[in-house]
Amino acid sequence: MTTPARQFPDRPDAAGFVRATLAAALAQVQSHMDAVDAVDAVDAVDAGSGEAERIHQLRVALRRLRTLLRECAGLAPGMRAEWDAPLALAFARLGTLRDAGTLADVVRPLLQDADAPLCDWAVPDAGQADADAAAAVREPQFLQTLAEIHALAQAPAGKRQPGLVSLSAAGTRKYLARRLARLHRQVLRDGRHFDRLPLAQQHRVRKRLKRLRYLADFAREFAPGMWPGKKGRRFAEALVPAQDALGLHNDMAVAAALFRDEAGTDPRAWFAAGYLQARLATSARSSRRALRALARVPGFWA
């Protein structure tokens, strides 16, 4: 994050918290957009293998921004619901590119150990992937949305703004605590029987877990005076194993689907698709155990 939290009060009111977090989230998005643009400007041969990481980091930045717009809308009536559509579209397009490259690196060792006849699927070259990523974040509606969010983030401090609520630091803390507790409760509720949920609902749990992490990060960094002690750091550390377990489970599910698609032109892909599908039961149980472990760590907002 490029905007240091120390530039802002330790216990901000609602307007201060929204301005600080939006500015930081936008700076992160812009930084990774610039990185993608810079690579797109060079010859495709020089694009290199870092394109997957660049795309991944841009997606993380967009998810953080979308988390703020969703979870903090009650602090800022100026956050418009229609902002999410162009951000979600760019996120999805980048996700397709990420799946094409990064997933292969995740599942290849598993398939090699199983002596799969096919361990990869067709992926675009690095230069094309970077060009496609740059195009995804050059859409006029996407850029207009970022400009409108920037205008809200730059609303002058010290006087009432129509797009920001007037809420004290104590009220802001209460609001954030409610949002964090709600996400936490939903994740733990579904985590108790994660391995019995349909794949779509498992994916929803993973998305909620990510929103919980990002909102917790924003709350701890931009309102540190509201959460004294070490509980915040302990909670952040406890999230990591759960995120890793659910991330691997999701990656294998997506990779299995990609291999099923590949099997339409290369029958060797059926082995990989079936093998990964069979492993989903194991990874789902691992995810359930990780979420149950998370349940033993109290939320820092309580």
UniProtKB/TrEMBL annotation:
A Pfam family that the UniProt record links to this protein: CHAD
Domain (CHAD): residue spans on this chain: 11-302
Protein name: CHAD domain-containing protein
Organism per entry: Delftia lacustris
